[in-house]
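[scheduler] slot 2 assigned
[scheduler] job type: sequence-to-structure, two independent chains
[scheduler] chain ordering preserved from manifest
[runner] begin chain α
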Amino acid sequence: MMTPIYFDGGSTPSKLPPDLYRASDPLHEPKTPRVLVVDDETLIADTIAQILNKNGFRATAVYSGAAAIEFAQRECPDLVLSDVMMPNIDGVEAAIAIRQACPDTRIVLISGQAATVEILSRASERGYQFELLAKPIHPTQLIRHLRD
């Protein structure tokens, strides 16, 4: 690793202390992934967000497809983890809107419903592909999947 140097106004460069270098250089700081958790069941959304926050993510929970779209339009998250079956705007429709607003955001859908296949096929016909995880999912498996 190269030792960083800085100029203090004189003609001789000085070495920056390694601890100061790491603290002030964003290229050497680990990035905390920003995750938007979406589920109309508030207990599930809050629990998943808490688990992710305790495991190196910065997660925020919202409780509807409309709230997810609104959040993503303000601040594109690195990752969206959304339930599929929700009232009004389902997770797939929200994912499509989020993908349009935030094309680089990774979107993972979770569902325990058989009807999800039909909803995802409609999204696919419109040119959108999303990852799908089956509910229930163990927190360890979820974290491993999100880190891959």
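[runner] end chain α
[runner] begin chain β
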Amino acid sequence: MLQNSELTELFTTNPGFVNLGLFLPFVMAAIIKTAEGSTTVALITASVLINPLLPALGLDTTTGRLFALFACSAGAMTIAHVNDSYFWIITEFTGMDTATALKSITVATFLQGVVVLMVVQFLAFFLDVLTLQTLPFLVSYL
């Protein structure tokens, strides 16, 4: 069904989407993780959804696909809250109340995901997977 939708055509015919680079896989996985709560489901779902878009993102090489998977993984680690079993394991084992856990665990996992995305972006630039044209796009959102 997704392959028959016009979403892939939108990404492949618009040259501006190549600037999204590894940011789009990250955001897609983060949205799924936040809404659904499972890291594994978010990683698998985002990877499947992003696969047809890899050529439009400039990630259609083997190394590009690997870095897209890393970006999906970073997004899938982002924002643990009350619908995530990891959130409740940490909350119960540390004796935190829910309000404190929401303030600390959610922020910590958000920062964790962002830092991992920055490391993946750095490695992608270092290994020449992405061109520097992606950098202004990312800086404009920070």
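[runner] end chain β
[qc] chain β: The two ends are 34 Å apart (CA to CA).
[scheduler] slot 2 released
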